[in-house]
């Protein structure tokens, strides 16, 4: 959506934004500690993963509200995600706000998790929380080990749960989408899952690279039609086809 105005439109008056961010500064650290330490006490309890993810989702929603940021998704897209099964979710990556916005808009009926670099598991506190939440550790130093770990984790997931992958690998610096890595396509081919592409618009306008304080405004999130890999075609062809479909939606006026 390149035709949007350069400056985002705030969704709250200045005084309201100031009050909200003051509350965030005062209470945010305590809320973060609660989220971080809950797994230490409850990770072994039955049903922990389900209600803990809902707690994290609610926390992301409150964070965006306190930052005066709205994440917008159509009712039709929400319904499509609520009924989505047997998929891998791929999203473009523009800003540190992307994960929070996605957590906010995805309906509770849709379960998902993220892959994270295995270095995080070296901390006992993070390891207990990540394992309890069902995050997938990825050994980025070895591509073959990372693929094996990710494929095995996706195989073990119930159809209702999807792993979220960023095919660009990092936040892109370009006006359009960056080059896609083949990981999501390879995992989809090996597990028989479809790919659900999600396109995030405008998050980099609120928190671009190098910025530390996000602006107020709206992030638009769009769910595309399921992508089915063509096992008779080369992997690179599927990667290009997936990128082109997401780029067409991202670049649309």
UniProtKB/TrEMBL annotation:
Pathway it works in: Lipid metabolism
**What are the protein's GO molecular function terms?**
1-acylglycerol-3-phosphate O-acyltransferase activity
What are the entry keywords? Answer: Acyltransferase, Membrane, Transferase, Transmembrane, Transmembrane helix
Q: Which Pfam families match?
A: Acyltransferase (PF01553)
Residues annotated as transmembrane: 23-44
Give a yes or no for keyword Transit peptide in this entry: no
**Where does the record place the Phospholipid/glycerol acyltransferase domain?**
87-203
Coiled-coil annotated spans:
none
Q: Which GO terms describe its biological process?
A: phosphatidic acid biosynthetic process
Kindly provide the name given to this protein in its UniProt entry: 1-acyl-sn-glycerol-3-phosphate acyltransferase
